[in-house]
Amino acid sequence: MAAPRVAVVGAGVIGLSTALCITETCPSCSVTILSEQFSPNTTSDVAAGMLIPHTYPGTPIHVQKQWFKETFTYLFAISNSPEASEAGIHLVSGWQVFKNTPKEELPFWSDVVLGFRPMSEAELQKFPQHRCGQAFTTLKCDCPPYLLWLEKRLKATGVQMYTRKVADLWELHREYHVVVNCAGIGAHQLVGDEKLFPVRGQVLKVHAPWVKNFIRDGDGLTYIYPGIHRVTLGGTREKENWSLTPDPGTTKDIFDRCCSFEPSLQGAQDIKVKVGLRPSRQCVRLQREVWSQGGVKLPVVHNYGHGAGGFSVHRGTAKEAAHLVGECIAALQGSSLKAKL
Ligand code: FAD
């Protein structure tokens, strides 16, 4: 079999990292990315990019932990290299605070992040409305720079990238041996997945370089995440809302909520409002299947539905998707060998 041709549909953090893992695990593959949008116009560009996992109720916890650990280890190495500032990856310390004692004292990811511990009484004085909290250090991706860094690495390994809206994955069967679906919320239409739904998120990206620590309300709704150049203030979680138009009332509400945690944000400048649709599902769809029409077969690997936690687990799920692509290629090579015998 000639070099297997693999098409990855989607150029958010999931598509780009999956394509990169495929080039690493299958160097003989010719990989092409086809996407309707590239950075800075994807949901991944809107995200805060914090490595704090979101829990997928339909996926075993040990699997989610493995995905998070692989992602953390990968990004920690980048943060500790000369590439860190170009890739937009940095360590950030801060607090997650609770009004009531949380159900689980130790979240499953507590031994993956660094220095996880209960907050001290002195730290809690900063948050008079809150009863307890957790202090830790994690990683943050500055999203557009990280996506551009991934694109640069892909181009250096010979991956081709084309702007193209794919109406049906089947249309790719003549040109490619394997198709990988990383279309995010686009998979709702692309493969008719009714289990996938948008959770709209509105955030503010502000200039407030004096804010150095992250603050997250335990319910996950209000957060302040300092990045290299901007601080992300959030947020909202609106299930089944497809609107990408910023809402001015929500902007004010987010700003007021964040200022109640960090009053110095009153002095924030250059406030930009962004909206994204989290591609949400009970579980990430990481699955290999074979499509067939009139005796013609097309192996398809799905990797979408990362909801509120795509950055936190992207490397782990990309590795698993690349492994599934390897299985598809091995099966194709097996069948072409059988055909020759
Ligand atoms: P996307 O980034 O949406 O990429 C999908 C790609 O597929 C796009 O390039 C699109 O153009 C393409 N596409 C779609 N349909 C087609 C088609 N038919 N043909 C061709 N191309 C197609 N996660 C975290 O881990 N930490 C955070 O702090 C965090 N904060 C967030 C804050 C907000 C406000 C939001 C909205 C999300 C946040 N997330 C966070 C979640 C994270 O953004 C997502 O899980 C992640 O971006 C999903 O990546 P993706 O590549 O699957 O989707």
How would you summarize what this structure contains?
With 341 residues, the protein is α/β, with parallel strands linked by helices. The protein is built from 9 helices and 15 strands. Helix 1 packs across helix 9 and helix 3 (61-79) packs across helix 9.
Characterise the protein shown here.
By secondary structure, the protein is of the alpha/beta class. The protein has nine helices and 15 strands. The chain has helices spanning 13-25, 43-46, 61-79, 84-87, 121-124, 143-156, 187-190, 248-261, 310-340; strands at 5-9, 30-35, 89-98, 114-118, 132-141, 160-163, 178-181, 197-207, 214-217, 223-226, 231-234, 238-239, 269-280, 285-293, 296-304. The strands form two sheets. Strands 3, 4, 5, 8, 9, 10, 11, 12 and 13 form a nine-stranded mixed β-sheet that branches. A hairpin with a 5-residue loop joins strand 9 and strand 10 (223-226). The longest helix is centred in the last third of the chain and has 31 residues, at 310-340. The two termini are 14 Å apart. It binds flavin-adenine dinucleotide. Flavin-adenine dinucleotide binds at residues 9-15, 34-37, 42-44, 46-50, 165-166, 182-186, 190, 201, 203, 235, 276, 278-279, 304, 306-312. Flavin-adenine dinucleotide is lined by residues 9-15, 34-37, 42-44, 46-50, 165-166, 182-186, 190, 201, 203, 235, 276, 278-279, 304, 306-312.
